[in-house]
Design a protein that fits this description.
homodimer, alpha+beta, Alpha-D-Glucose-1,6-Bisphosphate, Chain A, domain 4, globular, START-like_dom_sf (chains A, B), Activator of HSP90 ATPase (chains A, B), ASHA1/2-like_C (chains A, B)
Chain lengths: ~150, ~150
């Protein structure tokens, strides 16, 4: 098994970060502009990128602290069985977001690609909350030419 | 053990990428502007950030294909024993760089921080080669407020 780990520090409140991770409108500010279904535990969030994209079922919510998703469905294939968690922790001058995308069967090239791309989107989350403008798909920072 | 994995695709030649990974001048275009010591296998590269920073001994060089470093010295503490590799692979319209920073004792918050920060520097490498301007330290993209 292999995991992706990231951590960013954001000058924003845990409440604002939690909102950006748990609502369609919030998620659309930093990951992709096409999000639907975000809600309570058990809800299925559909993230779309030019029509296709992954679904996640919300597995855990601790307000302003923890958000846990489990991949749902079959796309992309290598995400099947993986889980994503966001842990929100208050620091002295910032709020930290610890991100984990765990349960990859192997550290494939695609997993490495996703690792780099998750960094891009977490910086987009930071920019969205600090500057008022993130870079969600289709305005995301490109890391290759595919 | 835990590893950091990344992958970027760059519109540049394997030769130019290899140069950026194996010379002081090349490394200074994307990681930190204060680099010395890059050379053949066995040389020790000193990367400095405001005076402090890690040393790496060059362990493997396959021209235009593979660059391997092993952490040397005691700073930062949690990097001791870790290794870094860059694998260069030619794609159809781009050259891929597969990055691994392996051998972390645990997926600590600092490891997660470094994972995000490596993505920033690999995108800096991409920008340096494609646009002629990277964002090495001290002009690097900030991922927190430390």
């Amino acid at each position: 098994m292999a995991d992706i780990n990231h951590r960013v520090g954001i000058k924003s409140s845990p409440e604002a970060i939690y909102e950006a991770l748990t609502t369609d409108a919030g998620l659309a500010t930093w990951w992709t502009n096409d999000v639907s279904g975000a809600g309570d535990v058990g809800s299925i969030i559909e993230f779309r990128f030019n029509g296709g994209g992954p679904d996640f079922v919300v597995k855990e919510l601790i307000p302003n602290k923890t958000v846990g998703w489990q991949h749902s469905g079959s796309v992309p294939d290598s995400w099947v069985g993986t889980e994503i968690s966001f842990q929100i922790d208050t620091g002295q001058e910032q709020t930290f977001v610890r991100f984990t995308h765990s349960g990859w069967k192997e550290p494939s090239d695609f997993m490495a690609h996703c690792s780099t791309k998750w960094a891009v989107f977490l910086i987009s989350l930071k920019d969205s909350l600090e500057l008022g403008v993130g870079k969600p798909f289709p305005n995301d920072v490109q890391i290759d030419h595919s």
